[in-house]
Amino acid sequence: MNPVVEHSHKELVELRVPSRPEWVALARLAAATVANRLRFSIEEIEDVKLAVAEACTAVIQHEAHGEFIDVTCEALADLLRIRVRDSGRQGVARAQAPNMNFDEARIAGLGVFLIRTLMDEVSYDVSPQGTDLLMVKRLTAATDH
Amino acid sequence: MDIKVNVREAPGDCYVVDLSGEIDVYTSPKVKDAIGELIDRGVYFLVINLEKVRYIDSTGLGVLIGGLKRVREHGGSVNLVCTNPQIKKIFDITGLVKIFGIFESEDAAMKALV
């Protein structure tokens, strides 16, 4: 099957949640549901859940976050692409900001470390419009049905 | 989604904290308060039972690390009971397996504590 053609067939799920702790569960469950549609293994679905939660948490736990967090999940043929955006000015990038105390920075750093470890590709862009975090999880041969 | 916290006294000067549910940025303050209250009362040897925890993130790990740091200042210790492979994986990849005593059963965690 032509992978390029497959990439054109995607399912897109967009979710906007308030930037508050009680809404992180919804964001991670939405991402897990999309991951399940792609037939990731249970362990991989848990990885996705945690990565999305850490991304949302990084946004919420910092001062200048916006009112909402936008989570976009694109299910392609062989990968899941997730974008987490806040409407503030910085999110994950601020996790290692020098004005945080040592313990806070260590815990925030742990979240970023988890995202980078659990997902196959991670990148983020910080602009005046907000932080845009992009994560990719690929289907492995073992889980690709 | 919620977290249930149950604190019970164990033999010796130890307490067991049973956690059930999901520990994240929303629920972790409840866990932090429960552990903090014990330490404030002078309890420095804790077993935290994570057997019924389905999910933990960095904020939950942070609470556990914070508790461990506080009890160690008083010569105390925190051991964890963890049987969920996904939760164990988080401790593995973050290297926290080297910091906490992690056990398959509460008995083993208690014995290693005292």
Describe the structure.
The complex is a heterodimer of chains A (145) and B (114). Chain A has helices spanning 3-8, 24-37, 42-60, 102-118; strands at residues 11-18, 68-75, 79-86, 121-127, 130-138. Chain A is an alpha+beta fold. Chain A has one domain (11-138): Histidine kinase-like ATPase, C-terminal domain (Heat Shock Protein 90, 2-Layer Sandwich), CATH 3.30.565.10. Chain A has a five-stranded antiparallel sheet, with helices on one face. Chain A starts with a helix and ends in a 7-residue tail after the last strand. Residues 1-5 and 90-98 of chain A have low confidence and may be disordered. In chain B, helix 1 (28-40) packs parallel to helix 2. Chain B has a five-stranded mixed sheet, with helices on both faces.
- H/E series of chain A: HEHHEEHEE
Q: Roughly what is the average pLDDT of chain B, rounded to an integer?
A: 95
CATH architecture of chain A: 2-Layer Sandwich
Number of continuous helical runs of chain A: 4
Low-pLDDT regions of chain B: none
CATH topology of chain A: Heat Shock Protein 90
Task: Name the shape of chain A in a single word.
Answer: globular
CATH superfamily of chain B: STAS domain
Determine Rg of chain B (CA atoms, Å).
13 Å
Q: What's the shape of chain B?
A: globular
Structural class of chain B: alpha/beta
The CATH class of chain A is Alpha Beta
Strand percentage of chain B = 25-35%
Query: Reading side by side through the largest sheet of chain B, how are the strands ordered?
Result: 1-2-3-4-5
Q: Kindly, what is the distance between the CA atoms of the first and last residues of chain A, rounded to a whole number of angstroms?
A: 13 Å
Q: Helical content of chain B, roughly?
A: 25-40%
How far apart the termini of chain B lie comes to 34 Å
Low-confidence stretches of chain A: 1-5, 90-98
